[in-house]
Design a protein that fits this description.
Number of domains: 4
Domain Peptidase M16 C-terminal: 214-390, 689-841
CATH architecture of the largest domain: 2-Layer Sandwich
Family: Belongs to the peptidase M16 family.
Pfam families: Peptidase_M16, Peptidase_M16_C
Strand content: 15-25%
Largest sheet: 7 strands, mixed
Strand order of the largest sheet: 1-2-3-7-4-6-5
Shape: globular
Keywords: Signal
Domain Peptidase M16 N-terminal: 60-205
Oligomer: single chain
Distance between the termini: 40 Å
Length: 908
């Protein structure tokens, strides 16, 4: 598993981080009075991190980071679903919900309101081994963030009526998860592989345990596990470490421990029962099959974990990895394939998962089991091993591009990873993961006697007589087991036979002439650069019967040049921890790349070669068609994916805005290489903007830009769309649990005078403290997700209200939306609502532009559409000046129920 999966797992070893607090520690003494100076021990680590332990054991870590005017705060608690007893399964997750329902000093909704009106972001997350409360704030408001985190963790109000309401929300969330193939598959895997451990239970719990929660049970859970000695407060950003420590001491120093900390026992993979492979098959309504081959893995602090990270990367970490290349590229048996090594505090889980057409299950399994038998001892070339190590460590470094990402990485290594030296130790272990270390780690985990196979697949028609000697069209459990053991037998003792935002100098715009614009945004904070070449065109160059062709051309464009085929290209990029990809939009076509700065010459040469000599290979066209068709089918298996594929054709018909960017399966299947070549010939002639953000040699970039092909055509003209006369669209998706309701209002297009106001109104409506959330979820408990979002283009826009709810509550939800709109029409919003929305817009603006790739893409997209580079900032500045009365006028102008389009996805 790579560092990305470490952050997903979020597990940690308490005894390594807090060696002074062992199982022998007695219940902590009463904390000193507040007016007594609080002694503490503190140190500044070589990396500049201030790490302090208060007398009650709570760790306070602070890292000053002045790249952005932001502060990211995290309060980690050693309490998650793995600490629950079966009768209260899911209570950690329920508590995470309840802290947003009010505290002793803040009424319901006030927590999110206080943060969002200061321009911050607030959330909480529950995993198996931890709960984390987090907020990302403008740096001048970090004290507010700290106060809110303490309030959430230690002073939730936990009102019985609110608990009953929120239990319904969590039950709806659970039902929604059952509609997701990946969620359902993971639940099956954990129940099978991790049986007998606390990790066999889903974090969200079960319907019967959720319904049985009481306020008394929740308070007992908090009293037992929410101990200061089991917590860490982390602050990263543009802050004064001394001031943060002083405030943390005042805020948390008087908290007392009320229970001892007993480190849980680790369970090695060798300790799990070795009773032979387990196979579970479930018939589902989805069009695709979803399969997972899983084994008990290693715990987080196990010495084998880094080697398994590298092993996972070698197998399926990128497009040149062994399993991806074999089953996706060469044999074309799967749509997706992935390998993950999840490390938890007490154990782990190693999985190989794939999505594929159900009629390929038999052939795939016959081939995969042969690979499984030899996989642990497979010989990987040194180049591939070096590439995998680079990718794993590169993931860690790139995580730190944002303030929040830096906080997540630092939090993991300080709290979950075992202490101040954990990051360097991890990197050293990755570097030392040679062929022998990987083989030893892999062979200890990949054992047929502990294998668990979970298959979710639709019912298949009977197999015809001509295929009787082929793998069965619909394999059963006996066939899966027999095929596995024939290729990968176990020895008599049960062991397998094989095992015996703006930074740096100001940007620069250089007009190169002939429809070419170069935008330079220096940022030397990281040794990377992001590049976006955006051309006018995309879907706007297509006829209605060509929908999906631009997306197909984008997929094929980077799959071969005159000097490298697709495999060589992937190896070339992966050897440099770099990326080069293409994509299409309604009015644009882009080619993006990012790279460590030391590989800049190589990547600029590759960009030039792609533009001048892309070969568009026939076999890559066919592979990309398969991928695109599979993506369409998978998207239409998901309620929201299906809805968004249908909404725009419903609204705009054959107009460009009604196009389905991926096309439909029949149209895509009919495309030929000649279609792709003809499109690219026309697209390559269009005017372009080249945007570069990061660390770069200015003169070298200008020289490289001038060498790129000059445009020979004009940007296509786009006529205004005609809106549909029909107002209602009902989409049926059988055998699902939830219904999904959209109210779609025509809104203010990009660049219009009303754009700032509509953006502000959307921010006021959305969010955890937004009007829709507070009314339809907090007050009425109608659904887990309630929000508002916009789609905007130069000639049209929409503001959509959305809720996922139970089928019999759709009408009530629609009435709820109508009541919110009526209130907006009747009364001007309170000033505090506007303040919250305005600050949220400002906070979102800074957070969204931390990554170099985001700033590069934004500049290129704005310029190619003829908009000023500060257009988004100008919208926010204009929104800051708006009054409640002006927003009321906009609500009356645009939010008219009689003009709304109603789109529902129902499970009938």
């Amino acid at each position: 598993m790579s560092f990305r999966h470490f952050l997903f797992a979020f597990s940690f070893c308490l005894t390594s981080l807090f060696p002074a607090f062992t199982a022998d520690a007695a219940v902590s003494k009463q904390a000193p009075p507040k007016d007594t100076p609080m002694p503490y021990r503190s140190t500044v680590l070589p990396s500049g991190i201030s790490l302090t332990y208060l007398p009650n054991g709570l760790a306070v870590a602070v890292k000053k980071d002045t790249r952005f005017p932001l502060a990211s705060l995290r309060l980690y608690v050693h309490a998650g679903s793995a600490f629950e007893t079966p009768d209260i399964a899911g209570i950690s997750h329920q508590l995470e919900h309840m802290v947003f329902k009010g505290t002793e000093s803040r009424p319901k909704g006030a927590i999110a309101t206080d943060i969002e009106k200061a321009g911050g972001y607030l959330n909480a997350a529950t995993s198996f081994d931890y709960t984390v409360y987090l907020t990302d704030m403008p740096s001048e408001h970090w004290k507010l963030g700290m106060d809110v985190l303490k309030d959430m963790a230690f002073h939730p109000s936990l009102e019985p009526e609110e608990l009953e309401s929120e239990k319904e929300v969590v039950l709806a969330e659970l039902q929604r998860g059952e509609d997701s193939p990946s969620n359902r598959l993971f639940k099956r895997v954990q129940a099978s592989v991790l049986k007998g451990t606390p990790y066999e239970r889903p974090i969200i719990g079960y319907p019967e345990t959720i319904r049985a929660y009481t306020v008394e049970k929740m308070r007992a859970y908090i009293k037992n596990l929410y101990q200061p000695q089991s917590m860490m407060l982390l602050v990263v950003g543009d802050v004064d470490p001394a001031a943060v420590l002083e405030e943390a001491t005042k805020t948390f120093g008087d908290l007392a421990n009320t229970a001892p900390v007993v480190p849980p026992k680790t369970m090695l993979p060798e300790e799990f029962p070795a009773g032979g492979p387990q196979v579970e098959i479930e018939t589902t309504p989805w069009n695709k099959a979803h399969i997972s081959v899983s084994f008990p893995g290693v715990a987080q602090m196990d010495a084998r974990a880094p080697a398994l990270d590298v092993f996972s990367q070698l197998l399926a970490g990128d497009t040149s990895a062994y399993l991806y290349k074999t089953y996706k590229y060469d044999k074309r048996l799967v749509d997706t394939i992935s390998v993950s090594s999840y490390t938890f505090e007490r154990t782990g889980l190693f999985t190989i998962s794939a999505t594929l057409d159900p009629d390929k299950l038999g052939v795939f399994w016959e081939s995969l089991v042969k690979d499984l038998a030899a996989l642990a001892h497979k010989k990987f070339p040194k180049q591939e091993l070096d590439r995998a190590k680079l990718a794993v460590t590169d993931g860690l470094y790139r995580q730190k591009e944002t303030v929040a990402g830096t906080a997540s990485a630092l939090g993991y290594f300080l709290f979950f990873g075992g202490g101040e030296d954990a990051e360097q130790t991890y990197l050293q272990q990755i570097d030392l993961a040679d062929e022998a270390a990987i083989a030893k780690a892999a062979s200890s985990v990949l054992r047929p006697e502990r294998l668990s196979l979970s298959v979710l697949a639709p019912k298949m028609p009977p197999q015809d007589a001509a295929r009787k000697k082929a793998p069965p069209r619909e394999p059963d459990t006996a066939w899966y087991t027999k095929t596995l053991l024939a290729a990968w037998p176990m020895s008599k003792d049960g062991q397998s036979a094989a095992a015996k935002a703006d930074t740096g100098p100001e940007r620069e715009v250089i007009e190169l002439g002939k429809g070419r614009t170069l935008i330079l945004q220096p940022d030397a904070s990281m040794p990377y650069a992001a590049v976006d070449l955006v051309l006018a065109g995309g879907d706007s160059l297509l006829q209605p019967d060509q929908q999906g062709l631009a997306a197909l051309a984008a997929a094929v464009l980077t799959r071969g040049t005159k000097t490298m085929d697709a495999v060589a290209l992937e190896a070339f990029k992966n050897d440099r921890a770099a990326s080069l990809s293409a994509g299409s939009g309604r009015e644009t076509f882009r080619i993006s790349m990012d790279y460590p700065v030391r590989f800049a010459p190589d990547m600029w040469n590759l960009l030039h070669e792609t533009l001048t000599s892309a070969t568009l290979p026939e076999k890559e066209v066919e592979r990309s068609k398969e991928n695109q068709i599979a993506a369409v089918v998978s998207r239409e298996d998901q309620p929201l994916g299906l809805a968004f594929r249908r909404i725009f054709p419903f609204l705009f018909g054959p107009h460009l805005y009604g196009y389905q960017s991926q096309g439909d399966t029949k149209t895509v299947a009919a495309f030929k290489r000649s279609d792709v070549a003809a499109f690219w010939k026309r697209q390559a002639r269009a005017p372009w903007v080249l945007s570069v953000c990061g660390t770069f040699d200015r003169d070298a970039v200008i020289a490289a830009a001038k060498k790129l092909p000059a445009p020979a055509g004009e940007a296509p003209a786009i006529a205004p769309p005609a809106w549909s006369a029909d107002k209602d669209l009902t989409i049926t998706l059988p055998e699902r649990n939830q219904a999904h309701l959209f109210l779609v209002f025509p809104a203010a297009p990009v660049g219009s005078a009303d754009e700032p106001g509509m953006d502000l109104l959307q921010n006021i409506l959305a969010g955890q403290s937004g009007l829709l959330f507070r009314d339809l979820r907090d007050k009425q408990g109608l659904g887990y997700t309630v929000t508002a979002f916009q789609w905007q283009a130069p000639l049209a826009a929409t503001l959509m209200f959305y809720i996922g709810t139970e089928p019999d509550k759709v009408a009530v939800a629609k009435e709820g939306f109508a009541k919110v709109i009526a209130e907006l029409h009747a009364n001007a919003l309170p000033e505090e609502e506007l303040t919250r929305g305005k600050n949220q817009m400002q906070g979102d603006y800074v957070r969204a532009r931390q990554r170099m790739s985001a700033r590069s893409a934004e500049a290129a997209n704005l310029a190619i559409l003829g908009r000023p580079l500060d257009a988004e900032k100008a919208v926010i500045d204009a929104a800051m000046r708006l009054t409640p009365e002006e927003l009321q006028t906009l609500a009356r102008k645009y939010l008219i129920m009689a003009k709304a389009y109603v789109v529902t996805v129902v499970p009938r």
